[in-house]
């Protein structure tokens, strides 16, 4: 087995402070779902990436546990700090939460994060590290019996490795949605397929990227396994050295969906009054999408829009009132 890599990403800007709800979080309508979903409270999202700056002011309260599977830090299993920047950025989009005047909010600011460092400083890792990270996430139990509800992976490689597929399938079969970046080898043409694994596996939720004009990012891979799209261009989130950065890539779209699932789980499981299967959670996620008019190979089911069901409900009520009064 060769190496697996971070999905390449572009650093657009690094800044010392940030004080807003990032545009991506707003674009997927996360703030509208916060109250009903308790901001993702009670859910643990496993981030399989380059680690995380554990003392970042917007993240330190969110991290429940972690582990290092790489040879970085002399292979110290308990040091899952981020010596790349990518993992910290992903973590912020999922669950950044700030009680101070400065700082940003992620999609699910009350969710907890399990940080699994499987990629080293240069953004690459052994397939075995990734496989071990996925298996660890499936079997992990928190101090109060918490279990991982979502796995987020913004990494990929050109090889379809059977052992990697097996670990992904094990996670999905145990009820955990696995959210993966589509990859950034796109050529801007939906008719040509580009595949990165594990994103291209049918069992995962594969995420493509759009910009803030709701246009498919030209770098976003297109293929018949794309499930949905999320903002992935100039995305503001947390960064190493307690800073913030705007990054671009399907890597940045993926955590929007991982965070969205932490919200959807709470809303849907409250309605059904039971734990939902991975298939049911996927169905609940897809119910909250809006087509953008691109081929399925580019956008899948469309853009995640967390408030769309309430908006439909309000529309029907208005419609019914109108007819009742006539």
From TrEMBL:
> What's one GO BP annotation on this UniProt entry?
proteolysis
Q: Which InterPro entries match?
A: Peptidase_S8/S53_dom, Peptidase_S8/S53_dom_sf, Peptidase_S8/S53_subtilisin, Peptidase_S8_Asp-AS, Peptidase_S8_His-AS, Peptidase_S8_Ser-AS, Peptidase_S8_subtilisin-rel, Subtilisin_Carlsberg-like
- Signal sequence, renumbered to the chain: none
Q: Which residues form the Peptidase S8/S53 domain?
A: 40-289
Q: Give the source's domain of life in one word.
A: Bacteria
Task: Determine if Zinc is one of this entry's keywords.
Answer: no
Output the Gene Ontology terms for molecular function.
serine-type endopeptidase activity
Q: Which SUPFAM superfamilies match?
A: Subtilisin-like (SSF52743)
Supply the alphabetized keyword list. Answer: Hydrolase, Protease, Serine protease
Active site: residue positions: 49 (charge relay system), 86 (charge relay system), 251 (charge relay system)
Question: In which family does this protein belong, per the annotation?
Answer: Belongs to the peptidase S8 family.
In its UniProt entry, what is this protein called? Type II signal peptidase. Serine peptidase. MEROPS family S08A
Biological classification of the source: Bacteria, Bacillati, Bacillota, Bacilli, Bacillales
């Amino acid at each position: 087995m060769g190496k697996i890599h971070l999905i390449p990403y572009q650093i657009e800007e690094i800044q010392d402070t940030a004080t807003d709800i990032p545009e991506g979080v707003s674009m997927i309508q996360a703030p509208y779902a916060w109250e009903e979903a308790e901001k993702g409270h009670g859910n643990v999202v496993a981030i399989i990436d380059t680690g995380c700056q554990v003392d970042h002011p917007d993240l330190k309260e969110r991290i429940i546990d972690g582990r290092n599977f790489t040879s970085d830090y002399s292979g110290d299993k308990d040091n899952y700090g981020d010596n790349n920047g990518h993992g910290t950025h992903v973590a912020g989009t999922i669950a950044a939460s700030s009680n101070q005047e400065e700082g940003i909010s992620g999609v699910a600011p009350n969710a907890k994060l399990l940080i699994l460092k499987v990629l080293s400083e240069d953004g690459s890792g052994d397939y075995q590290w990734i496989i071990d990270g996925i298996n660890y996430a499936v079997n992990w139990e928190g101090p109060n019996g918490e279990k991982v509800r979502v796995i987020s992976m913004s990494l990929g490689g050109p090889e379809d490795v059977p052992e990697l597929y097996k670990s992904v399938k094990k996670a999905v079969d145990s009820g955990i949605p696995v959210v993966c970046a589509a990859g950034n080898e796109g050529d801007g043409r939906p008719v040509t397929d580009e595949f990165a694994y594990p994103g291209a596996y049918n069992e995962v939720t594969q995420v493509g990227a759009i910009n803030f004009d709701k246009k498919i990012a030209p770098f976003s891979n297109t293929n018949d396994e794309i499930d949905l799209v999320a903002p992935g261009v100039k995305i503001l989130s947390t960064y190493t050295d307690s800073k913030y950065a705007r990054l671009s890539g399907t890597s940045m779209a993926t955590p929007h969906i991982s965070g969205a699932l932490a919200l959807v789980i709470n809303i849907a499981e409250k309605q059904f009054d039971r734990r939902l299967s991975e298939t049911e959670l996927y169905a609940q996620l897809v119910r909250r999408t809006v087509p953008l008019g691109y081929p399925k190979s580019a956008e899948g089911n469309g853009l995640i829009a967390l408030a769309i069901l309430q908006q439909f409900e309000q529309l029907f009520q208005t419609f019914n009132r109108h007819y009742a009064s006539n």
